[in-house]
Amino acid sequence: MNKVYLSLGTNIGDREHNLKYAVHMLQKDKDVKVCDVSSIYETAPVGYTEQASFLNIAVLIETSYSPLEILELCQSVENKLGRIREFRWGPRIIDLDILLYNQENIESENLIVPHPRMFERAFVLVPLMEIAQEPLTSYLQKAKSILSEMDIDQEGINKWKTTNGVEEFVQV
Ligand code: GSY
Q1: Domain spans of the chain?
Q2: CATH for 2-169?
Q3: Is the CB of 43 inside a 6 Å radius of any atom of ligand 1?
Q4: Which helix or strand (DSSP H or E) is residue 138 part of?
């Protein structure tokens, strides 16, 4: 089974519901097992800063899917939640990004893994390291080391709600 870490973010509508619905949709897929979900973090917008704050989580799944099949699944969940791609860094109902796929390096036309900006973003690294499985793979060790150099308060990352297991999280 492949171990895949995802990052989810939302800053439109009922943000908590958007996250829960997205994880519920992942869990409903017969080839996906949702193994862990981080706490929910409220985070200051990065990139285009004139927008509402985000809720972010990280999710660990086990799956038989290939990286491109996971990408398709993530896009179908985004579409089911009604995501409209208005502009690149703008507000969104939901965003699902593949952070890590096992320890693989993937560079295809539609997908780059590890996610090309994950090591610069505290809103990705904080939830990710909360659920990172030991022993840490080299990319997770890198994430841990970069995060230890970041000033989390300065980065505008605040724990918003603690998560008590996957089952409770996905009650929608
Ligand atoms: O890349 C995901 C969408 N996104 C986010 C996000 O999820 N959280 C925060 N804090 N800022 C963001 N800017 C963008 S674009």
Answers
A1: 2-169
A2: 3.30.70.560
A3: yes
A4: helix 138-148
Q: What is the pLDDT of residues 40-51, one digit of tens each?
A: 999 999 988 999
Phi (first) and psi of residue 74, to 5 degrees:
-60, -45
pLDDT band at 84 (very low <50, low <70, confident <90, very high): low
Task: Name, in order, each residue with C-beta under 8 angstroms of 69's C-beta and a sequence gap of 6 or more.
Answer: none
> So which residues are the catalytic ones?
83, 92, 95, 97
Q: What is 126-141 written as a DSSP string?
A: HHHHHHPPSSPPHHHH
**What's the mean pLDDT in 26-41?**
97
Q: How far is the CA of 122 from the centre of ligand 1 (A)?
A: 10
Q: Which atom of ligand 1 is nearest to the CA of 47?
A: 13
Q: Which neighbouring-strand residues pair with 94?
A: none
